[in-house]
Amino acid sequence: MDILREITPLTPHDCFSIFSREKQQFDFPLHTHDDLELNLILDASGAQRIVGDHLEMIGAKELVLVGSNLTHGWFTHQCSGNSIKEVTIQFHKDLLDERFLRRNQMVNIRNMIENAKRGILFPEVVIDIISPRILNLKDRTGFDSILELLSIIHDLSISRDIRLLSNSTFTPEKYKYDSRRIEKVFEYLNTNFRQQITLADVAKIANMSEVSFSRFIKRHTGFCFVDSLNEIRLGHVSRMLLDTSQTIAEVAFNCGFNNIANFNRIFKAKKGLTPNEFRKNYDGKRIFI
Q1: Assigned domain for 144 exists
Q2: Where are the alpha helices (DSSP H) in the chain?
Q3: CATH number where 229 lies
Q4: Could you tell me if 225 and 156 lie in one domain?
Q5: Which string of DSSP letters, residue by residue, matches 246-282?
Q6: Per-residue pLDDT tens digits of the chain, which is 289 residues long
Q7: CA 194 to CA 258: how far, in whole Å?
Q8: In whole angstroms, what is the distance from residue 263 CA to residue 212 CA?
Q9: Which of 77, 159, 166, 260 makes an SS bond possible with 48, Cβ 3.0 to 4.6 Å?
Q10: Residue 40 structural domain
Q11: Is residue 132 included in any domain, yes or no?
């Protein structure tokens, strides 16, 4: 059984599609599709967003870029508004050719599309600037509409204070890091996450001292070594909670957490809910086909 696989209306002959609607509730199930999606939602405080393994209640303004094949959906949850505004822009993952994205001037857009594999939440200050342009995009036509979409994509790519939503281990598309050393370390961590792993182990993989590697991984990922390892383990935990019937304790131990109390504390601190609540919340939004 799989989560709903959406075939979007975007045709191979179109660069993008845009849908603008007002509604009283969210009624589309948790789903995936090949195309990237930029979703603007206004006046839906109390609704719930699921992107990958990230669940969260949203505020009055919401702008999220969802990468290709990443599970996502918005749900009414505690939203009591009767005039929800939603604008969805979908575009092909090859709209910008990979060779073109490797050009120096495209570095910000390239990084944003890479980060979209985990889902990107933009801050309110960006929404205030970009949302009028998104709302007006439906009135543009032809080449002018493409230029405006690319301009919006560029301006989003230089935004500060974005949040990456889903765990990099959970995303179905391989997440790339900007350092071959970091990639080698994460390949090792993803292969051996069930085992006990020390800082000395990964510093050796990177051919660095422990002190140097600690600074190095923090600079490149924003996390210290222990948090990076826990992030990987939690991604595998999330997948197993959703895809297996193993008990929570079994899942925890199979993903390298040897202390169930410590595991529950780390999971709730990261996800905002217990493993049992996560499993129930997520499963309640799935329609199996």
Answers
A1: yes
A2: 98-101, 107-115, 124-137, 142-157, 180-192, 199-205, 210-221, 225-243, 248-254, 260-271, 275-283
A3: 1.10.10.60
A4: no
A5: --HHHHHHHTT---HHHHHHHHHHHHSS-HHHHHHHH
A6: 467 888 888 888 899 999 999 999 998 889 999 999 999 999 999 999 999 999 999 999 999 999 999 999 999 999 988 899 999 999 998 888 888 888 989 999 999 999 999 999 999 999 999 999 999 999 999 999 999 999 999 999 999 999 999 998 888 777 777 678 888 999 999 999 999 999 999 999 999 999 999 999 988 888 899 999 999 999 999 999 998 999 999 999 999 999 999 999 999 999 999 999 999 988 877 765 4
A7: 10
A8: 28
A9: 77
A10: 4-164
A11: yes
Tokens 């969805």 found at: 88
What does the alpha-carbon distance between residue 181 and residue 87 come to, in Å, rounded to a whole number? 40
Q: Answer for the pair 79, 46: CB distance below 8 angstroms, yes or no.
A: yes
Q: Which of 100, 130, 164 finishes a domain?
A: 164
